What does this fold into?
Amino acid sequence: MRQLEVVAVSDDGNHLLLAASEEAARATHQIRIDNRLVAAINGELDDDSEHRESELSPKEIQARLRAGETVEQVAKAARIPVSRIMIYATPVISERDRIVDQARAAKLTRPRGPETTVPLGQLVTERLADVAGLRPETVEWSAKRREDGAWVISLGYSARGGSRTALWLWRPNGRVLTSLNALGTRLGAAEAPPAARKSKPKPRPAPAPARRTPAKRATTPTKRAAAPAKSTSRSPRKASATQPKPVRRGPRPAPRQAPTMETKRTENGRVIMPSWDDVLLGVGGAPTAASRGRRRS
It folds into this structure.
């Protein structure tokens, strides 16, 4: 059988130009580009494929799709075209999307630590916003069913040239969502309340006790000025403000005067000097005989 090589495409874009070798000066054959050619390139061209029986039952096809296999993988296993697999794949794809939505709306259950109050989908969106080098177009949610009926929820994305996958286990019957790997735990970590997000000031260390140094004795006596004693009495203004003013009632009494001794004179006009007792006692009047005797003596 003679082998031909593709050398170019026709000007109208509907044919492939072929030649015996790639170095040929001109094309010798051409082939039309149609669906049969595309099917042949994809390995799906088979005259009896449309009428061939599938090697997998519809239940097996859907079970494989729920388990996470792609449509192409199931079609190859069933040995039928992809178009025939899509008849069974459409309801399964809708079911997987619904399971992903349920898991994203659920709250992650943690064996230790505080329970989350924010749905998983919201937490993951906030955490992905902080991932350095994230390629948003690579973020993809998926779900596949295990044999025990639980669903494995996966989130794949690329960041800094590497691919990462977070996994969670979702049980629809009990509505329990748990993480299956470290990345799933980190992306679904409990959100701290607003008051706890603020950095708390670090407590200041207690000051070290001051070391007491022995006082140096003065070699020469020094005189220190005595500090004035602090007066404990209140100022006149404060005292007048606190103490009530006395109320005056009627005229003031006349001040008392010390008793004065009357001047006594004799018949000749001489002043009679009072005795010492009279001066001490303040007794006035004429001198007595006893006082006179004492004066004469």
Observations:
- The first strand starts at residue 5 and ends at 9.
